[in-house]
Design brief:
By secondary structure, the protein is mostly helical. It contains five helices and no strands. The chain is 57% helix and 0% strand.
């Protein structure tokens, strides 16, 4: 887990956005995934996460819960890792939600 105060502004912004998606379900899944990995993301990975955060919350909830298949155009390596994490339950207890 990462202490937000140790992150640069871009990473803090991404982490905030990951925890404030719109539904508690996606906040926990996406926020937990990002929080566990944000410090180690490369610049390219940060860009990929920023792009994913632009996607519709309701669609992501359906894909991340396994209720609907991920469309091929959304099946990026980063999102597939997030999906695998969500389906394994790894995100279940990731600590507090940043304010």
């Amino acid at each position: 887990m990462t202490d937000e105060t140790d992150l640069d502004p871009r990473r803090r912004r991404i982490l905030f956005r990951a925890w404030h998606r719109g539904t508690k379900e996606t906040d926990l899944i996406i926020g937990g995934f990002v929080r566990a990995r944000i410090a180690g993301f490369s610049e390219a990975e940060l860009g990929e996460i920023e792009a994913i955060l632009e996607w519709q919350d309701l669609d992501m909830a359906e894909w991340l819960s396994g209720r609907r298949p991920v469309p091929p155009e959304r099946a990026t390596p980063m999102f597939l890792e997030m999906l695998q994490t969500a389906l394994s339950g790894e995100h279940a207890h990731t600590g507090h939600r940043p304010a």
